[in-house]
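Report of the visiting student (M.T.), summer placement. My assignment was to run the structure pipeline on a short list of targets and document each run. The first record concerns DNA-binding response regulator.
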Amino acid sequence: MIRVLLVDDQPLLRSGFRALLDAEDDIEVVAEAADGEQGVALARELLPDIAVLDIRMPVVDGIEATRRIAADPALAGVHVVILTNYGLDEYVLDALRAGAAGFLVKDIVPEDFLHAVRVAARGDALLAPSITRRLIDRYITQPPPAAATGLDELTNRERESVALAAQGLSNDEIAARMVISPTTAKTHINRAMTKLHARDRAQLVVIAYESGLVTVRGGT
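After the run finished, the structure tokens were exported:
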């Protein structure tokens, strides 16, 4: 059973998401909160699998709440999904850097939202395609900053795997592209995450673009 915590200052929106999630046999909403401070407290108390956080809330916003969750070793199993009305902006990038597993726009269709919750529960990165496109566009218009710590430790195969992950490919798709097994693809990604100190695949993607490891063409 996937246990979900909903954190949003709009009661009507929370109610809609709750009704949608509770109708599924493999998902349950364990609690709701109206701001990030309450959300972090409930995350520590209930240890949900997924915390769905609005990016902009009173008291403590979604970015700071994400940072607190990611920094707490007791909450290592809690995957944060950010909800935004705004598409890609500096707030979303800050949330990913803070440790969010991914982000979704609030006008997502119900089927895609349910799929997103299940993807995040597996520990995979959750990057809305329309926003990922803008994420890529943002970083190719800027000169790459200094390489991330650990970048020179990546093997060629790990670099290739990261480049493909940054294009939004799953482990199965990476495996097919590289002609390796999905298990090997997952191993490459996990080792790259460890070497680059990325909490999850979403942070790995941000590091890949910020460091210049990956370009818009997916090159290394």
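The first strand starts at residue 2 and ends at 7. The chain has two domains: 2-126, 146-211. I thank the supervising group for their guidance throughout the placement.
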